[in-house]
Write a structure and sequence with these properties.
Helix content is 72%, strand content 0%. Helix 5 runs antiparallel to helix 6.
Length: 173
């Protein structure tokens, strides 16, 4: 929830221009960048990495362009955390045979694209788009949306998961 708080504070900073929000968002990111060394290996590690790195990347992007007190060292530290802690988990998911419902692939791809945009990494961006359009996972467009019915892969599960996936697709767009 801390990265969600950082993201919300960054948005509040943009809306209100109250510096306390920018400072809090940056403080949260830097506190983690100073301490976080890994995401424990588990079945859910890719989902956690996808949800949280998306928030971190968006928060860093917002602050780096709007908060003049963010230093280059701060950006480097946050990017190092993303590259060393989150990206390896996401890359491992991309290289593992499918084992999840469709939302996972979408959530991971959204995070992958967010980091590639943050870093202006065209090749990384192309990898994410290629996975989304041509990958073999349940979270790729050809497997997530049924071409005959228009239903998503999560439709038979419950509405919360269906809406989550639609929201992630919208944010990817």
């Amino acid at each position: 929830m801390d990265f969600a708080a950082a993201h919300m504070n960054a948005l509040m900073w943009c809306i209100t221009q109250e510096e306390a929000h920018a400072k809090k968002a940056l403080d949260i990111l830097l506190a983690y960048a100073d301490e976080l060394e890994l995401i424990a290996s588990s079945n859910d590690a890719p989902l956690l990495a996808g949800f949280e790195s998306f928030r971190i990347a968006f928060t860093a992007e917002i602050l780096s362009h709007t908060y003049h007190k963010m230093k280059e060292d701060d950006i480097v530290k946050i990017n190092n955390m993303l590259r060393s802690v989150f990206l390896p988990v996401i890359n491992k998911f991309y290289n593992t045979p499918p084992y999840t419902n469709g939302n996972w692939g979408l959530i991971i791809t959204r995070a992958h694209l967010a980091m590639s945009i943050l870093w202006n990494d065209v090749d990384m961006y192309k990898t994410g788009i290629n996975f989304l359009l041509q990958g073999y996972d349940n979270g790729t467009l050809t497997n997530y949306i049924d071409g005959d019915t228009g239903q998503c892969q999560e439709s038979g599960r419950d509405q919360a998961h269906t809406q989550l996936g639609m929201g992630v697709l919208a944010s990817i767009c």
